[in-house]
Design goal:
Blueprint: H1 2-19, H2 27-66, H3 80-93, H4 104-109, H5 121-124
Helix pairs in contact: 1-2
Length: 155
């Protein structure tokens, strides 16, 4: 939108300059030319600032995309200081409560948690219960593998 306005003003300026070629130019035309010239200068300054910001953003994005390590990119933008000021004001308005000092006696009274050892199955079964060993044996025909070698007993 600004570019179209800029182009329109430029066209108006060119047409005004053509009409001013004659020596007889009225003061109204000169004022219009000066006004259009000032407006074009302002628009040019705004557009050049926008272009500069966009070029900076493009360079930063290219660096993030193609740089060595995208995690380490730090943008040194002048607007970053605003966030620090805001955070400082928030900290001033909401200070953290100071931790209560505990005496050495209260710390000594607290028992340290010890890790529980994993108990084995033998420890879980009481000693007074009777114990039996049951052996399940295979018939002789099933004690051989498919290639004819003897199977090993496990357990």
């Amino acid at each position: 939108m600004k570019i179209y306005r800029f182009m329109l003003c430029l066209y108006m300026l060119k047409s005004v300059v053509k009409s001013v070629d004659s020596e007889v130019a009225s003061s109204g035309r000169e004022a219009a030319i000066l006004f259009a010239n000032e407006q074009l200068k302002n628009d040019n300054a705004k557009l050049s600032k926008t272009v500069t910001q966009q070029e900076h953003m493009i360079k930063l994005l290219q660096k993030m995309l193609h740089g060595q390590k995208s995690e380490k990119i730090i943008d040194t933008d002048e607007r970053q200081g605003v966030f620090k000021d805001i955070l400082r004001e928030v900290d001033e308005l909401n200070p953290e409560p100071a931790p209560e000092e505990t005496s050495e006696e209260s710390q000594a009274e607290l028992p340290k948690k010890s890790r529980r050892k994993r108990r084995s199955l033998q420890e879980l079964i009481p000693e007074n219960l009777p114990r039996e060993k049951v052996i399940i044996d295979l018939p002789e025909a099933q004690k051989l593998s498919s290639n004819g070698t003897a199977l090993k007993r496990i357990g």
